[in-house]
What we know:
alpha+beta
Amino acid sequence: MRKEYLYIILLVTCILGILLGRIFFMNVAYNNTVSQNNTDYLKIFNNEIALETSSGEEKRVSPNSLFALKKVYNECNHFEYEEAELPKELVNLSRQEIEDYYDDWEVEEFDDKKLVLCKEINGYCNQHFVIKLDDNQVKVYRLGTHGEYIEYKNTDIFKEYLPEEDIKKLEDGIMIYGEGKLSSVLEDYE
């Protein structure tokens, strides 16, 4: 009879052990899931999470990515950098897909936070000016992409009011870079 009680106690202990173990591991799994969900919720609530893109190993453009275009001018080695709104058709594309989409542009920076496309342009940037005496009046020309003079601005500065030294410089043309420098030089002649 004692052996029977011993077997019953052993059987009950095993069953209780299995049940308690199962309850314990289910509780741990549940808590991990709840904890993960709470963390995700808090990140979303605090705006700490970017919108999901794809779940692959390959990096893709996020809808929250900074987007910029960079134009490099090979004649003057200056560049223009312009931030723009990310085109919707680029969201969730890989680097290769973007390079295929924009044949003329090179991907300079790429990750889920930033996309910069770069393009080399043959010529000069639009910040090169020439101040020149033309028809007895000082005129400002913008240097075009291919080095041509494009009339930019007429001034109220006339040859008859300038010293000989300035007239000689203006007949040859004075090259200026930047609108700020242009304004400063024109003020010197007024």
